[in-house]
Design brief:
The complex is a heterotrimer. Chain A contains 20 helices and ten strands. Chain A is of the alpha+beta class. Chain A has three domains: 170 residues, no CATH class; 162 residues, no CATH class; 193 residues, no CATH class. A six-stranded mixed barrel of chain A has the order 2-3-8-5-7-6. Helix content of chain B is 67%, strand content 7%. Chain B contains seven helices and three strands, in the order H-E-H-H-E-E-H-H-H-H. In chain B, strands 1-3-2 form a three-stranded antiparallel beta sheet. Chain C has a domain of 166 residues: 3-Layer(aba) Sandwich (Rossmann fold), CATH 3.40.50.300. In chain C, helix 3 crosses helix 4, helix 3 packs parallel to helix 5 and helix 4 crosses helix 5. In chain C, the strands form two sheets. A six-stranded mixed beta sheet of chain C has the order 6-7-8-3-9-10. The chains are: A alpha+beta, B mainly alpha, C alpha/beta. At the A-C interface, helix 14, helix 17, helix 18 and helix 20 of A face helix 1, helix 2 and helix 3 of C.
C-alpha cells in the first residue's frame, strides 16, 4: 500500500516538474488514439447511423424497383405486396428522373411521388419545414445541404419552379448522391439527389415533359433479416424487378467512406510512430536524472520492481490520460466523420468497443516503447554508479568523428553531435520521413480528378467523397506535422542540453554562437536529409496500396519541392532552440558542471 | 643536530669532512647554508661529553686533516635512545597567537594586518621551498624533505586563514558595535 | 606588442536583480604584465571565478574595462569575442571540460582547427604539446580512459594549442589528488619559467605559491596584492631551522 503511495507521489512530483513534457506526451497520444479510434469506428458508426435512420423513418426491409412505369408494372409490383412474408408496404410509387437547378448549381434529381400523409412504411423524417403539399417539394437533407438551399428557397425541376417546403431523411435510398437506385429502363445511374412531391405533382411533372419514370415498392417483411430469401422466392415475375435490401443500403452507405478508414488508420500508425519517437527522445533526455533517481530509491531500499513501476507509471498515466482525451475527441468527431453527407440522422454514432480497446492498447504501447530503454537502464545500473551518474560518457569513439575534422566548424560540430547520438539521428530521420509521407499523401489527394456531383459531372457540386478524403488527409497531415514540429524542437533542445558542456567548451575555445547554433541545426538536418529523400518513395509506395488504378500521381517536381520544403522548415525550426541554446552563458554552464 | 651527527658515526668512524659531505647530500639544497665549521663545533662538544672519541690517522698528503671520529659506548646508547624516541618538533604557534592577542588588546597593531604580513612571508617561503623541490629530481631524499617543508607551510597558511577569519569577525563586531 | 597582457580597470560584475543583487566583482583594477604568473585566492564565492571569466571574455562586465594584449574586449560582439578567445586565451577548468567523445589528441587539436589552421598543423602542434606533458602514448585515448591528472594535462595542452597571450586556470587542481596536484605544480612552474602569462584562480596555497604574484579577494574586491618572486628572505636553510 505504502509503495503505491510512494509511486503516486513520485509520479505527481515528476509531472509537476516536467509540465511541458507531460503536455506533449498527452497531446501526442491523444492525437494518435483519436485518429485510430475514429478510423476503426467508421464502419460501425456508419452502420449505426443507418440503423438509427431506418428506425426513425420506418425504413423498408426491401425496395422492389422496376425500370419502367405503367399499369402492368404497377400491378406486378402490387402483387408482391400480397406475398405472405410481407407485413406492410408502401407504394407502388412513381420515381421521375429530371434535372434540378438552383441559382448556382444544377444536378440530376429523382422525384418520389408520395402521399401527403405518410403510410406505415418509409415515412421520411422531416428535419425542417413540413412534409409535401401540392405545388411544394421536400428535398432530401444531404442533397439540400450540397445545394445550399433550405426551406423557403425555390428550385427549378425540369423547368418548373417549386418552393422547398421542407427537408427530410429516409432509409429507403442510399445517401446523397446515390438517390437514383436504378436507371430508367435498367440503364446506368447518374449522381442524383432526392426530392419528394405529392403523387399528383409527380405525375404532372413526368407527363409535362415526357420525363423517364420508374416505379418502386417499399416492403416490410415479417422477418427483416430474411431479405435474401424473399428475393429468391420471387424470381420470375412478368417484368424485371430489382430488389434492394436494407442490408445492401447500409453497405452502400460505407462506399463513400471507402478511403476514410485507411487514411485514419494508417495516419494513426504514423502519428503513433511520431509520438513514440518524440516521447522516447524526451525520456532519453531525462535518462540521467531518472537513473540517478533510481539509484537514490535503491539506496533507501526500493526494489527494482518499485523503481520500474515509478518510472513507468508516469508515462503510463500520461498515455492513458491522452488516450481518454483522444477517445472523447473521437467520440465527438465520429458523427461528422462517419457521415460526410447529411443524409442520415447523425446524433448517436459512438465508438465501437474494439476501437476503444485498440486505441487504449496503442496508448499503452506508446508508453512501453518510449520508456523501455530508460526504465531498463535505470533498473540495471548499480546503485552507486547511478548516484554518481553524469552525462553520457562514451567509451568508444563514434566513427564519424575523425572525418569531421576536415569540415568547416559548424559542420564539424554538427557531425560530431550527430555521431554522438546515432539513435536519435535515426529517430529524426524517421520523423522527417513520416512528415514527407504525409505531405506526399496530401499532394496526391489534391491532384486527383473525380466527377463532380453536378449535372454531367460538373464540379459545381463537388464530389463529397473526394472532399471528405482530402479533408481527412489534411487533418491527419496537420496533426502529423504538428507532432513532427514538436519532435524536431524536442530533438534539437535535448541535443543542445546534452551537448551544453561541449558547446560551452567549444565557445570557451573560441567558437562563435553562430557556429554553435549552426552546428546544432546541422546535427538535426543531417539525418533529416536522408529522411526527406526516403519519404518521397515511401509515401508513393504506401499510397499505391490504397489508390485506385486510375489514380493520378503528383508531378515529381512537386514531390521534390515538398521534400525540400520539409528540410527548409526543419532548418527553420531547429534555428530557434539552437539559437537560444547557443546564447546560454558559457561561464554559468561550465561552473554548474563543476559543482 | 648533535643526534644526527652521532647517528651518522654509527655506521663507521669518519672524518669531519666526510660527515659534512654526507649531511649535505641528505639535505640537498637545504644543506647548502651549512658550513664545515658547524660540524667541528658539534664534534668538539660531543667529544667533551664523552660520546665520541677522536683518533689521529694518517692524512692524505693534500689534506692535513687527520682526525677520525668514532662513537663511544655511551655514544652508541645515545644513538639507540634517539632512534626509539618519538618526540616531534613542536610548531610554535602559541607565540604568534599571543602576539595577535597582545596586539589587539593593547591596540598596538591590527591583528588582521599582522596575519596578512605573516601570510605573505609564509607564502614566499612556500614558493621557495616548492621551486627548490620541483627542481629536484623525483624520488631524491631531499625532494621528500622539501615536500614535508611545503606541507608544513601549507598547514600554517591554513591556520593563518583561520586566524584571519576569526580576527576579522572580531573587527566587524567592534566596528559594528 | 604591448608589454601588458591583461588589464582591467574599474571592473564590476553584478548578478541577480533587486534585493538579491550581488556584486560578484566590485571595482577591481588589475594589470598583468606579459610573462607574469598571477594567483588569485579567496574563499568560495569571493568572485574570483567571475573575475577569470571576465578576463577571458566568457562574461561581460557590468561596468569597467577589460584589455587583452592591448585590445579592449568588453565592448566586442559575441563573434569577435569568440575569435579573440581562439587566439589569445587558453582556459583550464576544474572539471577539465574535455570533449568526451574526442581523443586526447583531438581535444588538443580543437582550438587550432577552430582558429582555421590546417589539420596537419593542428596535429603537429598537438603531438608536440602532448609530448611536452608526457602524454605521447595517451594521444589516442578518450578522456574516460585517462586519470584525472592526465585529463588535466590534456586540458593544459589544449589551452596552449594556439599559443595564447594568457592562460586562465580556474581551480585547476580542485578535482585532483595529491600526486596529480604535484604534477600540475610542476607544469605551472614549467609554464612560469617558460615566460607564459598565467592567471590561476585557486584556493590551494601550494598552487598559488607557484605564481610570481598573489592577489587575495574578499567580497569581489582585492584585499591584498603580494609579490612572491625574487625575495630570499632567510635562505633555504632557514626553512628547516639549520641556522640555530
Amino acid at each position: 500500500m505504502g509503495s503505491n503511495v510512494l509511486v503516486a507521489r513520485l509520479v505527481m512530483a515528476d509531472i509537476r516538474r516536467h509540465r511541458v513534457q507531460a503536455v506533449v506526451l498527452l497531446l501526442a497520444v491523444a492525437a494518435a488514439t483519436a485518429t485510430m479510434a475514429l478510423g476503426l469506428s467508421l464502419r460501425g458508426a456508419s452502420g449505426a447511423l443507418y440503423e438509427q435512420t431506418r428506425a426513425a423513418t420506418a425504413g423498408p426491409d426491401v425496395v422492389a424497383l422496376s425500370g419502367d412505369a405503367g399499369p402492368a408494372v404497377t400491378s406486378a409490383l402490387a402483387s408482391l405486396a400480397d406475398a405472405p412474408e410481407v407485413v406492410a408496404h408502401h407504394g407502388p410509387y412513381r420515381i421521375v428522373y429530371a434535372d434540378l437547378t438552383t441559382r448556382d448549381a444544377a444536378s440530376s434529381v429523382v422525384v418520389h411521388g408520395f402521399a401527403e400523409t405518410p403510410g406505415t412504411v418509409n415515412r421520411p423524417l422531416v428535419t425542417s419545414g413540413r412534409w409535401v403539399r401540392p405545388g411544394g417539394t421536400v428535398l432530401e437533407r444531404g442533397f439540400a445541404a450540397a445545394l445550399g438551399v433550405g426551406v423557403g428557397d425555390r428550385v427549378t425541376i425540369a423547368g418548373r419552379s417549386y418552393p422547398v417546403v421542407g427537408t427530410a431523411v429516409t432509409a429507403a435510398t442510399s445517401v446523397y448522391p446515390g438517390a437514383a437506385q436504378i436507371g430508367p429502363y435498367g440503364g446506368p445511374v447518374d449522381y442524383s439527389g432526392l426530392a419528394w412531391m405529392t403523387r399528383s405533382d409527380a405525375r404532372a411533372l413526368a407527363s409535362s415533359q415526357d420525363l423517364p419514370v420508374t416505379t418502386a415498392l417499399d416492403l416490410k417483411l415479417r422477418d427483416p433479416a430474411a431479405t435474401d430469401a424473399f428475393r429468391d422466392a420471387h424470381p420470375d415475375l412478368a417484368i424485371r424487378i430489382t430488389f434492394h435490401s436494407w442490408q445492401f443500403r447500409a453497405e452502400q452507405d460505407t462506399v463513400i467512406l471507402r478511403n476514410s478508414r485507411p487514411i485514419l488508420v494508417v495516419g494513426s500508425w504514423l502519428l503513433c510512430f511520431l509520438a513514440i519517437t518524440g516521447v522516447a527522445a524526451l525520456a532519453a533526455g531525462r535518462a540521467v536524472e531518472q537513473t540517478r533517481r533510481a539509484g537514490l530509491l535503491k539506496a533507501v531500499g526500493a526494489t527494482p520492481g518499485l523503481i520500474a513501476a515509478a518510472l513507468f507509471a508516469e508515462y503510463l498515466a500520461l498515455a492513458l490520460a491522452g488516450d481518454a482525451l483522444g477517445l472523447v475527441i473521437a467520440r465527438l468527431a465520429v458523427p461528422a466523420v462517419a457521415a460526410p453527407t447529411a443524409s442520415r440522422i447523425s446524433d448517436a454514432a459512438g465508438l465501437t468497443g474494439a476501437a476503444v480497446a485498440t486505441a487504449t492498447a496503442l496508448a499503452v504501447a506508446v508508453a512501453v516503447l518510449s520508456t523501455l530503454r530508460p526504465t531498463l537502464r535505470a533498473m540495471r545500473t548499480a546503485t552507486v554508479t547511478a548516484l554518481t551518474a553524469t552525462a553520457h560518457r562514451p567509451r568508444h569513439r563514434p566513427w564519424l568523428t575523425p572525418l569531421s575534422a576536415l569540415l568547416p566548424t559548424p559542420l564539424l560540430l554538427g557531425l560530431r553531435l550527430t555521431a554522438r547520438r546515432p539513435g536519435r539521428a535515426v529517430l529524426q530521420a524517421c520523423s522527417t520521413a513520416t512528415t514527407v509521407i504525409a505531405i506526399v499523401a496530401l499532394l496526391t489527394a489534391h491532384v486527383q480528378r473525380e466527377r463532380g456531383y453536378g449535372l454531367d459531372g460538373s464540379s459545381v457540386l463537388p464530389n463529397l467523397r473526394g472532399e471528405h478524403d482530402r479533408r481527412l488527409i489534411l487533418a491527419v497531415t496537420i496533426l502529423l506535422i504538428a507532432l513532427a514540429v514538436v519532435n524536431t524542437i524536442t530533438f534539437t533542445w535535448t541535443t543542445a542540453m546534452e551537448a551544453r558542456t561541449n558547446t560551452a567548451v567549444a565557445r570557451a575555445l573560441g567558437a562563435t554562437p553562430g557556429q554553435v547554433s549552426a552546428g546544432l541545426s546541422t546535427a538535426q538536418l543531417l539525418p533529416s536529409l536522408p529522411g526527406a529523400i526516403a519519404g518521397v518513395p515511401l509515401g508513393v509506395g504506401l499510397l499505391s496500396f490504397f489508390a485506385a488504378r486510375n489514380a493520378a500521381a503528383p508531378p515529381p517536381s512537386l514531390l521534390l519541392g515538398a521534400a525540400l520544403a520539409t528540410l527548409l522548415a526543419t532548418a527553420a525550426l531547429t534555428a530557434l532552440p539552437a539559437y537560444l541554446a547557443s546564447r546560454r552563458s558559457v561561464a554559468r554552464t561550465l561552473s554548474a558542471e563543476t559543482a | 643536530m648533535q643526534d644526527a651527527v652521532l647517528a651518522m658515526l654509527a655506521k663507521e668512524p669518519s672524518h669531519g669532512y666526510d660527515l659534512h659531505a654526507r649531511l649535505r647530500r641528505s639535505l640537498g639544497p637545504l644543506g647548502e647554508s651549512m658550513n664545515r665549521g658547524q660540524i667541528y663545533v658539534t664534534l668538539a662538544r660531543l667529544e667533551r661529553a664523552g660520546l665520541v672519541v677522536c683518533e689521529r690517522a694518517d692524512g692524505l698528503p693534500e689534506r692535513p686533516e687527520r682526525k677520525v671520529y668514532a662513537l663511544t659506548p655511551a655514544g652508541q646508547r645515545r644513538v639507540a635512545a634517539w632512534l626509539s624516541e618519538v618526540g616531534w618538533p613542536k610548531p610554535d604557534l602559541a607565540e604568534f597567537h599571543l602576539k595577535l592577542a597582545a596586539a589587539a588588546a593593547a591596540r598596538l597593531a591590527d591583528p588582521v594586518e599582522l596575519v596578512a604580513a605573516q601570510r605573505r612571508e609564509l607564502l614566499r617561503r612556500l614558493r621557495e621551498a616548492q621551486q627548490t623541490a620541483l627542481a629536484e629530481s623525483a624520488g631524491s631524499g631531499a625532494g621528500l624533505l622539501l615536500e614535508g617543508v611545503a606541507l608544513r607551510l601549507q598547514a600554517d597558511l591554513r591556520w593563518l586563514d583561520a586566524c584571519e577569519r576569526a580576527w576579522s569577525a572580531v573587527d566587524d563586531e567592534v566596528g559594528g558595535g | 606588442m604591448s608589454s601588458v597582457a591583461v588589464r582591467a580597470c574599474g571592473l564590476v560584475k553584478t548578478h541577480g536583480q533587486g534585493q538579491s543583487r550581488v556584486r560578484a566583482v566590485d571595482e577591481v583594477d588589475l594589470v598583468v604584465p606579459r610573462g607574469q604568473t598571477l594567483a588569485v585566492m579567496g574563499p568560495s564565492g569571493c568572485g574570483k571565478s567571475t573575475l577569470l571569466h571576465l578576463l577571458g571574455g566568457l562574461e561581460r562586465p557590468t561596468d569597467g574595462e577589460v584589455w587583452l594584449a592591448g585590445r579592449r574586449i568588453d565592448t566586442l560582439g559575441e563573434r569577435a569575442l569568440a575569435r579573440m578567445r581562439r587566439r589569445s586565451v587558453g582556459f583550464v577548468f576544474q572539471a577539465f571540460h574535455l570533449v568526451e567523445e574526442l581523443s586526447a589528441a583531438e581535444n588538443v587539436e580543437l582550438p587550432a582547427l577552430l582558429a582555421g589552421h590546417s589539420l596537419r598543423q593542428a596535429r603537429r602542434r598537438a603531438s608536440l604539446l602532448l609530448e611536452r606533458f608526457g602524454l605521447a602514448d595517451r594521444a589516442r585515448h578518450l578522456p574516460s580512459q585517462l586519470s584525472g591528472g592526465q585529463r588535466q594535462r590534456v586540458a593544459v595542452a589544449r589551452a596552449l594549442a594556439n599559443d595564447p597571450t594568457v592562460v586562465l586556470a580556474d581551480e585547476p587542481t580542485g578535482n585532483l589528488d595529491t600526486a596529480a596536484t604535484l604534477d600540475m605544480l610542476r607544469i605551472f612552474e614549467g609554464l612560469r619559467s617558460a615566460g607564459q602569462t598565467l592567471v590561476i584562480v585557486t584556493h590551494d596555497e601550494r598552487v598559488a605559491a607557484t605564481a610570481d604574484r598573489l592577489v587575495s579577494m574578499r567580497d569581489g574586491m582585492f584585499v591584498d596584492d603580494t609579490r612572491l618572486a625574487g625575495s630570499h628572505p632567510r635562505g633555504l636553510g632557514g626553512l628547516i631551522g639549520l641556522e640555530d
